[in-house]
Each structure stands twice: as structure tokens, then as C-alpha cells.
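Consider the following assembly input.
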Amino acid sequence: MLISVGAVTTLFVWCLVKVLTGKKNPDHLAHVEPIEAKDIDRR
Amino acid sequence: MTTKQPDGWSSKLGVIMAVAGSAVGLGNFLRFPGLVADKETGGGAFLIAYFISLLIVGLPICWVEWTLGRFGGTQGYNSSPGIFHAIIRKPWGKYVGLLGFIIPVGVYFYYVVIESWCLGYAWNSFSGSLDLGKEPKSYADAFAAFTGLNADGAILGLGTPFLFFIGVFILNFVIIYRGLSKGIEFICNWGMPLLIAIALILLVRVLTLGTPDPTKPELSVWNGLGYMWDPHDISKGLSNPAVWLKAASQIFFTLSVGFGVIITYASYLKKNDDVVLSGLTATAANEFCEVGLGGMITVPAAFAFLGASAVAGGTFALGFNVLPQVFAGMPYGHLFGGLFFTLLFIAAITSSLSMLQPGIAFLEEGLGLDRRGSVALLGLITAVGCTLVVYFSEGLKALSTVDFWIGDIGIFLQGTLLIYIFNFAFGTERGWTEAHHGADIRIPRIFKFIIRWVSPAFLTAIFLMFVLKNVAGWNLSFTAAAFTPTDPILDLIGGPGHPASDVARLTAFFLLLFAAFSALMIHRAGKRWDAR
């Protein structure tokens, strides 16, 4: 019980704090690695 | 000529509250606790399966739906048919979005009815008229009278239950008419914090109950918590397919993925609005309400007053029969009971509003209706559907028929389609990049593998299991498989000892008509979209 309830509560609080205190650049593209040509989807 | 201001969210927290509001519903407080407490399929094994399902199905599909929704919005579409039209780019693409229209609207047919029960029970509790003594039959009779359980057409007229239904139905449309930021967002920005505040008050009340009846020392809230969170035999549970099916199903239904709601809500975001942290936060909010609050309130309270047998019933029995009896037994119970049903009402209305918006979005962009026209047409469609549910109330047959075929099968199907469309029509790499536009946090790289390979396989397996069990009647045994027709099937075709139900057949026919009508509207919408 403590693990389950503690985990979801911690996650929720962390997310809320991150949302309420976060700021970013408007045109920011976050944390994307360069895509190798061989990884591009063929469509 | 005035230009119509495009609808949109006024803040990031607003869209998160709206999605969380859509997800948090009666199931968080009534269904989940019952599943955990179940002696056969609950316990530690269920929770392990539940959290694994959250990581490999719930959260990935949540991010997929947010991403596809925002992409669709940048292409000028806010409805599922429009968004899939933009993604698939083939003539049949828009019809894939049919489910994203009929599921939320179809579920609304009965959800708003249940919502009116919650408001009615809140009113009755606050006024003291829900204190019916110690006899369980009194509460069951009260529920039957309020819902028309014993006879079709029982609640039609100027009686209280029908007036509550009419009031709640109108209230939903008044709010939805106000649009996204002044309507849904406003309600959720106030409603969700209020819901959590009420839940915390109830949590404190429950945890301080102690032993309500000193002559029965075994019935205490601490024993109730122990009953609820008893780990059982974990290894035995994890090898039971029924445990995985129940856990994965609950994750799926509780997060409102595959509903057609998140994809519409996310479509009102701008291209560089974050979807990763927003999706995670909405999910976390739902899980906090479900595991952290729902898991600590209803079952322990029911156990402390009435023992284990009180917990054995389903969602409606726990919520509307058992808990009123529990609240009647505690000091100031009418206040706490009123608060509890107010909490359920807030959870329900933030969900029901979310079911209307996909319909509004489609009618506006697909048929070119303005807000008044879309509200009027959707109001008419839902009035017909709701009338079916309200009138054919005996045994809640119409309600359960819509719930099974639309609310269960439909959602699973849509969710499965979503993950395949993301991977194969949109492209996993492209989708991964798209998800990270404007993202405030990074999705751990392992999730790319999960989204590409694990989620589709797991969800397909769970969906097949669900259909085999609940439609074909499989007993979930691999060594001694048996198939027994289930109630939804017997209701339609009849069988020995279970005659076909005319109400179920009529409801199913109505749903088919509704689907056909929706497909015709999508066909017409497609012409409009191709022309622009």
C-alpha cells in the first residue's frame, strides 16, 4: 500500500511542480537526437 | 464580417486539468477499489500487473494520443475523423475516426444518466433523506426507485430523478456552449482541485473512523485497509490471465485513452506546446486519484461498518447501496455522504463534458455548423440516445448494452487502432520527433521500443483476450478451454434459460443506426475537407 500510494503521490507532486515552475523557449525542440538516415521511416 | 476566434486552451495547466478531469471518474473511486479487494484476482498481483500495464500500455498510448491530436490540430482538424484524414491521407482515412466520434457520444448516452444519480444522491444525502436505517434492503429499494431499476419508464415524469437528469443534461450543454476555455477549462480548473480537496477531507474522515462498532472489534478501518491491500499469493496471481486482463483493462479505461477525447483536447494545442510532461501529469493526476485516494476511501470505510461481504458487489452496488448505509452510520454522515456524492458528481461532469467536445468539434469542422448549430444537433442526437437509456431502465438493460458494445469493445478497438496508426501510418520515428516538439521533459528512450513493439503486441493480446472472454465466453483456461455464451450475446440471440432481450436488441439496432448516420456525416465532411 505504502509503495503504491507513495509512488503515485510522488509522481503527481513532481509533475505538478514541474508544470507550475517550468519555463522554456517558444521554439524549443527538446532532447531529440539526430536521426540517422537508415532510421528514417520509409513511407 | 467578423472572424470567429478559434477555440483553444488558455493555459497549459488548463488542458492538463481538462484531460485529468476527463480521466478521473466514478471508476477511480468505485471500480478500482473493488478490483484490488477482489479475493480471486486482486491483491499484490493485480497491482503489479496494473503498474506494468500503466508503463507498457497506458502511458505510451497516452503520449501517442496527445501527439497525434496536436499534430491533427496543426493541420486544422480537431475531430478524430478529421485528424485521421490528415494523418492517413487516403479516402478511407477519415472513417478510421468514426470510433472517435461514436464512442464519446455513445458513452454520453448513459454516463450523463449516472451523473444525475450522483447529483440526486448528493442532494438527498445533504437533506438527510438518504438515512434509511440499518436495513440494506432499504438502500437497494431506494436505488431501484431512483433509477427505475424495476420497470421501464418508471422515472419518466415530473419526479425528482427525472428532473435531476434533465437538469444535468441541460447543464452539460450550457457549459459546452461556452467553448473550451470559458466552459470546459473553467469547470475543470475549479472542479479538479475541489474534487481533490473533498477526497482529502473524506480520506481523513475514513482514516479516523477507528472501530465504529466496539462490539465488533474486527471491523475497523485498519483491518479494512488490510483487507483492501492484502497482497495474496503474488506468484499465483501473476500466472492467472484473468488478473492481467482485469489490470490492463482497468488501466485502459481509467486513463480515457482510445476514447476520442484526448486526441481532440490535444488538437487545440499549438505546435510547440508540450505534450510529454502534460500527458504524464494528467496520467499522474488520474493515478493519484485512483490509487492514492480511491484506494484508501471507499472499501476501508465499507469494511469498517459492514464487513467484507459489503465489498463484494459491483461498482453501482458499492457506490449507491453500500456507501449510503455506511454514511448513515457515522456522525454527521449526511454531510460526509453529501460530500462523497458531490465528489462523484464533479468526477462525472468533468468526464461527460469531455465526451461532448469531440462531437462538437466534428459537427463544426465537418458540417460547417456554428456553435449554436453544433450544440443543437448534438443535443438532439444525445437526447434520443439518453431517452432510450432513461426509458428502458429495467435491469439497466439499455445502459449495460451501450456500455458493453461502445464503452468496452469500442474503446479497446480504438486504442489498438491508435497505436498501429502511430507506428505504421504516421511513423514511429516521425512520431517520436513530433512528440518532442516543445517538450518540457524527455521521454526515456526505452519507450520508443515499447511504443513500437511492446504496446501493440500487449494491447492486441489483451483486446483479443477481452473479446474471447466477454463475447465468446472463454474461461481463460489454456488447458481446459471452454466457451459459454456471455450475457451481452445471449441478450441479442437468446439461449437456454436466457431469452433474448427486446431492449438489448432495440439498443443494438439504435447503435447501428447511429454508427451509420455518423458514417454518412463523415462522408459529407470528407467532401468539405477535400474542397478546402
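Residues 25-34 of chain A have pLDDT under 50 and may be disordered. Ask yourself how this observation constrains the way the partners meet.
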